[in-house]
Amino acid sequence: MKNKFLRTVVWEVQYLTPPPAVRYCKKCGRQKEFVSSGQFRVNAQRKYLDVWLIYKCSGCEATWNLTVLSRIHPKAVSRELLDKFHGNDQILAHKYAMNTDLLKRNGCKIGPYDYKITGCAAFDGPVRLHIRSNDASDVKVSAILREKLQLSRKEFEDMLSDGRIQSESEKDLTKCRLGKEILLVIS
Ligand SMILES: [Zn+2]
Question: Which superkingdom does the taxonomy of this entry point to (predicted)?
Answer without folding.
Answer: Bacteria
